[in-house]
Amino acid sequence: MRLGFFDGSPQYTSLGKKDICTEENIELAREAAREGAVLLKNIDQTFPLDADKIKTLAVIGPHANTTGAMTGNYAGVPCKIVSSPDALSAYGEVDYKVGCAEMRCMDDSLIFPAMQAAQKADATMPP
């Protein structure tokens, strides 16, 4: 009873994609994502990346190309989910490599291709 399960329909249950997925709301979500990124160290003032100097970018990590993990326990239907490699490809060539298929990295066969991609790229980023 305390959770409100018997209080009738909540006021927001009637909202659909037409109400939520507006350009204004999508831009607000982009802004929140940009401002929510945390950089713990910026050694040699690497960030923000210089688009004139960085033409190729290696994106490496088991979750770098996932979109399902980005929603967490969000129960709604997302308007649009863009993976890190897809988003970054707007700024240059992106070479995505898994590196390890899962966090424990029980199979190291994907590490060497990730290392090669990192060596060839102008910059390397985790997801």
TrEMBL record:
Q: Name one GO molecular function term.
A: alpha-L-arabinofuranosidase activity
Q: Which Gene3D superfamilies match?
A: Glycoside hydrolase family 3 C-terminal domain
GO-annotated biological processes = arabinan catabolic process; xylan catabolic process
Which UniProt keyword terms apply here?
Answer: Glycosidase, Hydrolase
InterPro entries, sorted: BXL (IPR044993), Glyco_hydro_3_C (IPR002772), Glyco_hydro_3_C_sf (IPR036881)
Name listed for the protein in its UniProt record: Glycoside hydrolase family 3 C-terminal domain-containing protein
Identify the residues that the record assigns to the Glycoside hydrolase family 3 C-terminal domain, covering every copy. 38-124
